[in-house]
Amino acid sequence: MARYDDLGAGYARERRADPRVASYVTAALGTARTVVNVGAGTGNYEPRDRQVVAVEPSTVMIEQRPPSAAPVVRAAAEALPLSTQSCDAAMTVLSIHHWSDLELGFAEMRRVAPCQVVLTFDPSRTPEFWLLKDYLPGWVELDASMPAIADVEKLLRNVRSVEEVPIPADCTDGFAGAFWNRPERYLDPAVQRANSLMARTPAPILDQAMARLRDDVATGIWDERHGHLRKLRQIDLGYRLIVGGS
Predict the structure, then answer these.
(1) pTM for the complete prediction?
(2) Strand locations in 39-140, DSSP E?
(3) Strand partners, 93
(4) For 77-224, where are the E strands, in sequence order?
(5) What is the mean pLDDT of the segment spanning 199-222?
(6) Domain 4-245, CATH 3.40.50.150 — does that match?
């Protein structure tokens, strides 16, 4: 339930909502006035112009929420402390891969709100990402066990849309794919600690991978392989916004 009690230190400094990604979430919420943010973390992507209640299991993450963030309840996605159909919409942003029971979590979102907004990623795209393919290949196999987007649709039910969310070249949120054209950023220990993919990698494996990346950046090998990415303004890395409900 509280994996981020171990991984969440320094999260608020490195993980700041990117306004372009946020615009997709806000648009998907439509006219909803009351929103529950499931797996809310430090409050990224919570709309400021609506009545929001945040649900977050990690004390470490809750303690990093700014004073301006929505009120928060310490609880898990699988047992939302809200009455049935008490909100207009339930949202969750890049959190479902930390849930212990996807089916139950989605059932809870459906129970408390008629509209569900889920930002997640397509694990079938993982093998294409250079960070994992070239430096952390063990994560390709691990992410393959994640539910496919089609499986998420089945669990969520009554899906209205699945939308591609491109990641901008200067993304301000330090999630796993954020620095796709800025390899130097992955070398920062603060970035590594705030990124669950890297924070969950055993230290010896991560250290070896980052040593290779550091050498490849310094010698120009990374740019020989992937330098074309530095010229792009945005890219599709498989992040998807799924909207369900009536």
Answers:
(1) 0.91
(2) 51-55, 72-73, 89-93, 115-121
(3) 119
(4) 89-93, 115-121, 159-164, 167-168
(5) 94
(6) yes
